[in-house]
Design a protein that fits this description.
about 110 residues, mainly alpha
Amino acid sequence: MDTQGIEQMLSVLRSTAAQASGKPAESAAAGAAGGVDFAQVLKSSIDKVNQTQQQADVMAEKLAAGDTTQNLHEVMIALQTASVSFQEMVQVRNKLVTAYQDVMNIQV
């Protein structure tokens, strides 16, 4: 059984967790003050989710077209990985919107 899709998802999750915790990761961009640039981390995470979805779509299209190099279980794993990545991104967005609304409701 090929575990490439699972390993890729674990790598994305570990990278996102390292970036979110503020620990420098191999792919994290450091800001001018030595910290992590939030906008860059957010953009990088969105790009990774987009790339995962596009890869899964390409694999599904090849399978539907009858490409014999595509295994059904690999395509299903890629599609589920893309789905979980997207759901994670939506939850992060929801938390950011909630935090923004909380900050905007603070009485000064």
